[in-house]
Amino acid sequence: MSRYLKHLPPLDTLITFEAVARNGSFTRAATELCLTQSAVSKQIRVLEDALSLSLFERQARGISLTRAGAGLFAEVSAMLERLQHSVNRIKVEHAPNAVTVQCTHAVAQFWLFPRLLAFNTAHPGITVNIHANNGLDESSTADYDFSILYGNGKWSSLDAHRLFAECVYPVVSAAIPVADIGSPADLQTLPLIELDSSGWNCMDWRDWFGHFDLEHTPAPDSPLFNQVTLAYQAILQGMGVGLGWDFMVRGKIDSGDLRRVGPYEFISGNADYLAHSRHKTLSEAAVIFRHWLLHDGRCV
């Protein structure tokens, strides 16, 4: 007998348990699962018997998880989430006309999405699935056809093609009056929107000023955000001067919603690259997507 069948309760009982625990109700779980309430109750009894544990406390005004039930719920909900993600990923990966791409939230929203509209027009038979993840790295690329990775383009397990260079400069809402600056140091007299990049690999004001041999200490009352996209929204709302990545802000500058503050910019030498595993054969759809993005996609 399989060790899973021998030592684990039936999967359907775990799915039912997760629904009851999450909803806090047998009735609501039954509605969600398209089962009768008696069928849900029976599934929970089967699970409790299999574990020799009581998972719920039945009370006059409803149910609550026991200590064992709370522990099982934490494990089962995470397990089912991972299982669903893995199954969906495998289905997508092996679909003949689908391409999977992993990139940051900012790249997905400001650079890739506008190009997907043009790609879909040119290749309506190919579906591109985007997974936005700010924690992506070389190792996670193996789970996708492509990753758009930031760095120097040198990854031992990946083939990488440069998409766009990193160019960062100060920007402000066009509705906010800001005096002209004569040097990067003048920026430190302005209200700056700070970016906390301690949790990931991203430029902040300290890095930007450091490029011009200047020290930077954030003002105690400066607004602080831990995501580039949040800082971008703060700039649009007129909260102050913020760092603008050219691929994100160029459209708003052209439309007149944002403007640069001074001519100073930091071109770091890093870039965003379209990368894929050297040990994975690309599908025909993925090859078409790569060729389009590296050629026609640059013109969008």
Automatic annotation (TrEMBL):
Coiled coil: none annotated. One of its GO terms (molecular function) is sequence-specific DNA binding. PROSITE patterns: HTH_LYSR (PS50931). GO terms for biological process: DNA-templated transcription; positive regulation of biosynthetic process. Keywords: Activator, DNA-binding, Transcription, Transcription regulation. SUPFAM superfamilies: Periplasmic binding protein-like II (SSF53850), Winged helix' DNA-binding domain (SSF46785). Residues 9-66 form the HTH lysR-type domain. Pfam families: HTH_1, LysR_substrate. It comes from the Bacteria. Belongs to the LysR transcriptional regulatory family. This is LysR family transcriptional regulator.
